[in-house]
Design brief:
This is DUF11 domain-containing protein. The chain has nine domains: about 5-135 and about 290-375, Immunoglobulin-like; about 140-285, no CATH class; about 410-535, Immunoglobulin-like; about 545-660, ntegrin, alpha v. Chain A, domain 4 (Immunoglobulin-like, Sandwich); about 660-785, ntegrin, alpha v. Chain A, domain 4 (Immunoglobulin-like), CATH 2.60.40.1530; about 790-910, ntegrin, alpha v. Chain A, domain 4 (Immunoglobulin-like, Sandwich); about 915-1040, Immunoglobulin-like (Sandwich); about 1040-1150, Mu homology domain, subdomain B (Immunoglobulin-like, Sandwich), CATH 2.60.40; and more. It contains three helices and 91 strands. Helix 2 packs across helix 3.
Length: about 1200
């Protein structure tokens, strides 16, 4: 047992009553026997409930302690079950006892119970008493707020108080904190007190790590407002984990795990100080889940030892998960004797032991082991209230103590020995129905009288008709044999007699007698047993017929019954007999046996005798089915009629054989009719449906029905509802047809033309089936007649079967319908949808019917034999038909009667189209630009190519000769050219051939510097042309280059330079330029230098091969001239390749003057004339030089340049 108590550890014996509380999961009754007495076996029962906020419920796990009202000794203890029920039984001579009920957080209640005889006394010697309890938890009242801060709750977008809530419990104030920040709380609220977190009441979420919450409560003190608020925020973090992390996308007001939003815990609002938040995260990260003691058990629970002996007591401590908890200090108290130690620390197995000695003679002692600690307690609200209050956690409201105790008695020795026999021996083997007698003997072999002996002996299950006889002076009730007194050397017996039942078969049934109590020390074994084995031989009798539990056969089939007897038991079966009397109707019977036994066909007795465990024997009986069995179910029974040993398996097995019989009938319809005649037309659908019905009594299998499909039907489909149809053989195979069921063969076809005017029928008959059928079914359909009528449809277009036209021509279609048959044609309809492209449509009908040009439907209706009706349709050809062959179809789209003539007639109209393509070349080119000079030949060749698809006629192409050409000639390869109109006429141009127009001329001066093109455009032809040709030639450009001459010159010291410059002002490059410049007379030692080209000194011609637009070239002429003479140079451009709108000449004359320049240089202090020194420099003076320049004539000098160089030293 283990005991969980709060706030106290009481002395168990002496004058104090035990008041302890247990929270274990066990509801087992504990039995404690104390005192030296002889008397009854009291049983005290009752229920414990708890009243929480006015709600009363059964209380599971409440502790019940029973002690003597006179001595205070504890005599028994237990805990309540899930229904709050308890039961304590013990041995005592007293009749008055104190019963104490206790539970976590509740005030213990003690009731005095007097036990008395029950309603079955004296058969039942026990005394009974009842004590019921209603416990009420202690209350905690919220009195005030302590240290704390207002913090931000981001997910709610509001502030809330975080910190200490002071609560009052029994006049003492405790520090508490909130669990769920989303539930309101008010000062003055009252909560109930419970045990260590998460407690045993309330409805706290299981996802919370309550060990970490307890850790925070026990390791942090709310010494300041910030610290108190941080502790509360950390607790909220753990207790709101089940809501999930903060999600910014959730609506405001959604519950979430506090402290997971980025601004949670800020002081005063979303932007406040993070002091509380930062400290809370330090506490959260440091928290560890406390593994605190949850249970303690002490062994032994109860023991009686010889006077003077010591006892070792072991305490085991476990956590909430049931794991051993090492390192826990356990304290021990005793009511008597000497403990080896008053405390100890648990080892790796969670255990610590002490020894109790010096107990005394014939004494009672109790050793209590307990563990104390401070943990978080639950303060919980009413979970059924419509408005919930906040649950709180508080530290040390109920300082936790868990305890357990053992009861130790010392006494004199009285060795009572237990022995037992069954049917006179230590064991016995019996059969079901045999008598079984257990005898338990208690013998006192000691010199001391034994008292208060209780022996538990539960009657073995399986015995029936049980009688229990205790010897004189003893009693037996509810499995307890009570021996109040057993003198030395005396014996007492308990005799249990009953009959072995099938429940014991194959089992060894033990009867065990356990000594559960004796006032004296007893060194003998406490338990004694005797066993009975009840034999069992499970012989399974099974049977098959043709390999199964049942068979279906036909007359003449062979039937094989196999009956198997297999001993699946551990024991041999003896005197085994099986009876199998074969059913009547079988002939040619024979049998074989594989294994032991004999068989008599006359009596059906299979006498097996003995069949050992695991053995098998088989009886095989063979016979042939006769007609007497047809349509009947025959059952064969194999019955186990005798066996000595118990057999739990069925004694009978049977199989059935059914002999099949099936009577088929056939019926047939045509298009749903079963009488009269079906009149149809070619093309009509015909459905023959044969129905095969099984009139039983059994399913018919492998039915073969022959139905050869009538000739002349087309598009045939054959659909069996069951089975398959072979079109080659005409056989419909039905694998199976149940009794009362039907199957159909549906033959769908179309009346073919070969049937016109004829009558057909369809016949089907059954040719075989597996089951017997007394008749041969057959069926023939009603007749089907096919009608016939012959309407010929013909057509012409413009009087023939085809026509060739041009756009805008008139087309006339004539459609004629003639009935050449002997029968009138009815519902006659001809569809003629006029081909697209025709306009101005008109129609006339000569004869019967109406015509709808939109739908093309010519609805004739009835056309009698030999009658004719004509539809004439006229329209005009449009461009949409050009180049196309247009077919007009007249289709007979409906006629009731068969018509062997073609249903369609057609004519064709071809609308001509010709597309001449015009292209051009210039001087043989068709890309780029043709560049020429004035006077060059220019030839435009216009090409007209007929690309089809038809020949072109009466083509007219306009081509106006480009201006500027001179000496023009125009030559057509086909047709004529009118120079006045510019029209080239081609009378006929065969498809895929060409014609050309050649225009030749010379580039005139008016074309210089410009580009021209030639345009040829088709303006008419007879045939339709979707895209009349239009061609513009590539450009022809006539080059021009304006080259001008300029000239400069100079002389020096009688040397003359002439520079002639030729500049191209464009717009084109000038080539092959020739400039004549004869050497001026009067020059000697002449040199001539061209910058580009060559100069011929003999002819005076300067040749420039090429001069780009904007470029210049120079000719420099240098020579010596006589002073006081004039030299003239003339340059004239005489030719160039490109046209130049101007001719250019340049003349320049230079006069060579005669001058004598004198230059003198001297210091200024000298007289320039006399050379007399006027001044002398000293060191540091700035010298002055004088330059004297004089022209001594005879001509003026211009442009004189003097070079002056300073000497060294200056």
């Amino acid at each position: 047992m283990f005991i969980l108590a709060f706030a106290f550890v009481l002395t168990i014996l002496g004058t104090s009553a035990a008041a302890v509380n247990e929270t274990g999961n066990t509801n087992n009754t504990t039995l404690d026997v104390t005192g030296e007495c002889s008397g009854s076996d009291p049983i005290i029962t009752g229920t414990v409930t708890v009243n929480e906020y006015g709600h009363v419920r059964p209380l599971e796990g409440a502790t019940i302690i029973v002690n003597s009202t006179t001595s205070g000794k504890v005599v028994g203890s237990t805990t309540t079950d899930a229904n709050g029920y308890y039961s304590v039984n013990f041995y005592s001579t007293e009749t008055s006892f104190n019963v104490i009920a206790n539970y976590i957080g509740c005030t213990p209640i003690t009731r005095t119970v007097t036990v008395s005889n029950g309603p079955n006394y004296p058969t039942d010697p026990n005394k009974y008493g009842t004590a019921n309890f209603e416990l009420t938890p202690k209350t905690a009242t919220l009195s005030s707020m302590g240290n704390g801060q207002t913090v931000y709750i981001q997910g709610q977008n509001k502030n809330g108080f975080a910190g200490v809530i002071n609560v009052n419990v029994g006049g003492t104030t405790y520090v508490a904190y909130c669990i769920d920040l989303f539930t309101p709380i008010s000062m003055g609220d009252t909560l109930l007190v419970n045990g260590p977190l998460p407690g045993t009441a309330g409805d706290l979420p299981t996802e919370v790590d309550w060990g970490k919450v307890s850790y925070i409560l026990n390791n942090y003190s709310p010494s300041s407002s910030t610290e108190a608020a941080a502790i509360q925020c950390a607790i909220w973090y753990f207790t709101s984990v089940h809501y999930g992390a903060y999600n910014a996308s959730n609506p405001v007001g959604t519950y979430y795990q506090y402290m997971t939003a980025p601004n949670d815990g800020r002081i005063g609002g979303a932007t406040g100080s993070t002091a509380v938040r930062d400290r809370a995260w330090q506490i959260i990260n440091a928290a560890v889940s406390m593994q605190y003691p949850y249970s303690i058990t002490v062994t032994p629970e109860s023991i009686t030892v010889l006077n003077g002996q010591s006892v070792t007591v072991t305490a085991t401590v476990r956590d909430i998960d049931g794991n051993p908890l090492p390192g826990v200090r356990v304290y021990f108290q005793k009511t008597r004797g000497t403990l080896s130690s008053t405390s100890g620390v648990t080892d790796a197995n969670g255990q610590v032991s002490v020894t109790l000695s010096s107990i005394g003679t014939t004494r009672n002692a109790i050793v209590t082991a307990y563990v104390s600690g401070n943990y978080g307690n639950l303060l919980y609200d009413d979970q059924y209230a419509s408005v919930r209050k906040q649950n709180l956690v508080a530290r040390n409201v109920l300082p936790l103590t868990i305890s357990d105790f053992c009861i130790i008695n010392t006494a004199v020795q009285a060795d009572v020995t237990l022995t037992q026999t069954v049917n006179g021996g230590s064991s016995a083997t019996v059969n079901v129905g045999d008598t079984v007698t257990y005898r338990v003997t208690a013998t006192n072999a000691n010199q001391n009288t034994a008292t208060g002996i209780l022996i538990s002996d539960i009657i073995p299950a399986g015995l029936s008709g049980v009688t229990v006889t205790p010897s004189a002076g003893t009693t037996y009730y509810n499995g307890i044999w009570t021996i109040p007194t057993l003198n030395k050397l005396a014996s007492a017996t308990l005799t249990i007699t009953g009959t072995a039942t099938p429940a014991m078969a194959g089992l060894t049934t033990n009867n065990t007698a356990n000594r559960t109590a004796q006032n004296q020390y007893n060194s003998q074994p406490t338990s004694v047993s005797a066993s009975v084995y009840t034999k069992k031989a499970d012989v399974a009798v099974t049977q098959t017929v043709n390999g199964g539990s049942s068979a279906t056969a036909n007359v003449g089939d062979t039937i094989i019954y196999i009956i198997t007897a297999a001993n699946n038991g551990l024991d041999a079966a003896t005197n085994l007999r099986i009876t199998d009397l074969l059913p009547s109707g079988l002939t040619d019977l024979s049998y074989t046996i594989t294994g032991p036994g004999t068989y008599n066909l006359g009596t059906g007795l299979w006498n097996i005798g003995t069949l050992n465990s695991g053995a098998t024997t088989i009886l095989t009986i063979t016979g042939k089915v006769t007609a007497a069995m047809a349509g009947l179910t025959t059952t064969n029974y194999a019955n186990r009629t005798n066996q000595t040993e118990y057999n739990s398996l069925p004694a009978s097995t049977n199989t059935t054989v059914y002999t099949k019989k099936a009577d088929l009938s056939l019926s047939q319809t045509v298009n749903g009719q079963s009488s009269g005649t079906i009149n149809g037309n070619v093309g009509d659908s015909v459905t023959f449906q044969i129905t095969a019905t099984n009139n039983g009594p059994d399913a018919a299998t492998n039915i073969n029905l022959r139905d050869i499909i009538p000739g002349g039907l087309t598009g045939i489909t054959v659909t069996p509802s069951v089975g398959t149809y072979d079109s080659n053989t005409g056989i419909w195979t039905i694998p199976s047809l149940a009794n009362g069921a039907s199957a159909t063969l549906t033959i769908n076809g179309i009346l073919g033309s070969s049937l016109a005017g004829q009558t057909i029928t369809n016949t089907g008959n059954v040719i075989s089936q597996t089951e017997y059928d007394p008749t041969t079914p057959t069926t023939t359909s009603i007749p089907v007649y096919t009608k016939i009528a012959d309407v010929a449809v013909t057509q012409t277009v413009n009087g023939g079967s085809s026509a060739t036209v041009n756009v805008n021509d008139t087309v006339t279609y004539i459609i004629t319908a003639v009935n050449n048959g002997v029968d009138a044609a009815t519902n006659l309809q001809i569809t003629d949808i006029i081909p697209s492209g025709l306009t101005d449509l008109t129609y006339t009908i000569t004869g019967t019917g109406t015509y709808n040009p939109s739908t093309g439907l010519w609805n004739i209706g009835t056309l009698n034999s030999g009658a004719t009706t004509i539809l004439t349709i006229t329209g005009k050809v449009t461009a949409a038909m050009a180049g196309l062959t247009t077919t007009n179809y007249a289709n007979r789209t409906n006629q009731t009667e068969y018509n062997p003539s073609p249903a369609s007639t057609s004519t064709t109209v071809y609308t001509k189209l010709s597309d001449p393509i015009i292209t051009q070349t210039v001087n043989g080119q068709n890309t780029g630009t043709v560049k020429v000079n004035v006077g060059d030949d220019v030839t435009f060749v216009v090409n007209a190519y007929c690309s089809g698809p038809d020949d072109a006629t009466n083509i007219q192409i306009r081509d106006i000769i480009p201006a500027g050409l001179t000496d023009v000639t125009v030559t057509p390869s086909v047709g004529t050219y009118d120079s006045n109109t510019g029209i080239w006429t081609i009378p006929f141009l065969e498809k895929y051939t060409s014609a050309t127009l050649t225009i030749s001329g010379k580039a005139g001066t008016s074309m210089a510097g410009t580009s021209i093109t030639n345009r040829a455009q088709e303006i008419y032809q007879t045939e339709y042309n979707p895209a009349p040709g239009d061609s513009t030639s590539i450009p022809v450009y006539t080059k021009m280059a304006d080259v001008i001459l300029t000239q400069t010159g100079n002389y020096q010291s009688n040397v003359v330079n002439f520079v002639v410059t030729a500049t191209n002002n464009g717009p084109d490059t000038a080539t092959n330029i020739k400039i004549t410049d004869l050497i001026p007379s009067g020059l000697t030692g002449v040199t001539v230098t061209p910058s580009i080209g060559t100069y011929d000194s003999n002819t005076g011609v300067w040749t420039i091969p090429e001069l780009l637009n904007g470029a210049s070239a120079t000719l420099t002429i240098t020579g010596n001239a006589t002073p006081q003479t004039t030299v003239t140079n003339t340059a004239e451009k005489t030719s160039q390749t490109e046209y130049d709108p101007t001719s250019d000449i340049s003349t320049l004359s230079i006069y060579i003057s005669d001058v004598d320049i004198s230059v003198q240089n001297y210091p200024w202090y000298l007289n320039a004339i006399t050379g007399e020194q006027l001044y002398q420099y000293t060191c540091g003076n700035s010298p002055v030089m004088t330059i004297d320049i004089r022209n001594l004539g005879p001509d003026d000098a211009t442009g004189v340049t003097i070079e002056y160089k300073l000497g060294t030293g200056l």
